[in-house]
Amino acid sequence: MKIQQRKPKATFVQSVVMVVLHSMKIRDVGNVMYAIFLISHIQGIKMLTELILHNFRSHLHTVIKLVKGVNMIIGKGQAGKTNIKRGVEWLHSNRPLKGKVHSWWCREKEDETYVQATTSEGTTVRIRKKVGGSVGYTLTWADGSIENFDTVGTKVPDKVKLALNLGELNLQGQMDLPYLVTKGTSEISRAVNAVVDL
To answer: Nearest-CA neighbor of 64 among 76, 56, 54, 52?
Structure first.
């Protein structure tokens, strides 16, 4: 896997991805099956600056430093790209509830799986689970204060949602159509109004 950087040319995250896809003009992708885009540091918007996956599925310990602009993770099939996206989804939504999150290396009861993200404000959010244990969150604010949310069940604590500032708008599946391209004018208007808070 390798990370490439592209500078965003728009303020909406989905528009940025579309611009990058169009401007890259990749002709020979070889064994690259697909790419994952992680967008960081759009001015005025809280973004992720670092992502850590520890004992999560195919990742023993992976640290991804996000640079300003669009970060594209590309690689051959079965290299762990999709599991990066799954890690962000687990952190954001505490899903899958019964799905496999532990890696092959995580076998003992004291072994812990976690996915951690750091925001541009300096806040760190971690979702964690021990083998046979329950899911919990650890929130480290920029001032160094720490809050633990143990045994959260199926929910995501409100403070975690606030710190991450991620919603369904920010996450797109592999088979999803390009954002807003196939929508009608009324749906586009509603989406834009929601973003600018009209």
So the answer is: 52
Higher pLDDT, 188 or 90: 90
Residue 146 near residue 116, CB atoms below 8 Å: no
pLDDT in tens, 76-95: 888 888 888 888 888 988 88
Residues in the chain: 198
- Of 171, 138, 137, 140, give the one whose Cα is nearest residue 154: 137
* Block residue for tokens 């925001």: 119
Q: Report the alpha-carbon distance of residue 178 to residue 84 in Å, rounded.
A: 20
Q: pLDDT above 70 covers what percent of the chain?
A: 63
Pair of tokens at residue 184: 């009608």
CB 126 within 8 A of CB 160: no
38: β partners: 71
Q: Element (H or E) spanning 162, and its range?
A: helix 158-164
d(CA 141, CA 122): 7
Query: Could you give the domains of the chain?
Result: 2-170 (3.40.50)
pTM above 0.85, yes or no: no
Residue pair 34/5 in contact (Cβ under 8 Å)? The answer is no
Percent helix, strand and coil across the chain, each to the nearest 5: 25, 30, 45
Residue 89 in tokens: 């989804």
The β-bridge partners of 135 are: 129
